[in-house]
Amino acid sequence: MANGWSVFISLFAIVGLSAVVWVFAPKGENQTVWRSSLILTFAACYILWAITFMAQLHPLITPRRSNLRPEAHSDPRLF
């Protein structure tokens, strides 16, 4: 089962991966484009994943049972 540390562990992994991209980006006139594209892609994917993960880890709305019939609430034998 996943816990809250997954967000921080993956953040450190993304920061490390971004540092690797910064150092090993292909040299040339498009080096800045390569760096920017890859680092922004990593950051955007991480933010999307982190928000989705945290929303599932701590939901704001409690799930409700949908299989209860309204007439079942009035019958005391069903409780």
Automatic annotation (TrEMBL):
GO terms of molecular function: proton-transporting ATPase activity, rotational mechanism
Q: How does it sit in the membrane?
A: Multi-pass membrane protein
GO terms classed as biological process: vacuolar acidification
Which Pfam families does the record associate with it? ATP_synt_H
Q: Where does this protein chiefly localize?
A: membrane
Q: A cellular component term (GO) from this record?
A: vacuolar proton-transporting V-type ATPase, V0 domain
Sorted alphabetically, the keyword list is:
Hydrogen ion transport, Ion transport, Membrane, Transmembrane, Transmembrane helix, Transport
Localization per Swiss-Prot or TrEMBL = Endomembrane system
The membrane-spanning stretches of this chain are: 6-25, 37-57
Matching entries from PANTHER family are given as: V-TYPE PROTON ATPASE SUBUNIT, VACUOLAR ATP SYNTHASE SUBUNIT H
Q: Which family does it belong to?
A: Belongs to the V-ATPase e1/e2 subunit family.
Q: What is this protein called?
A: ATP synthase subunit H-domain-containing protein
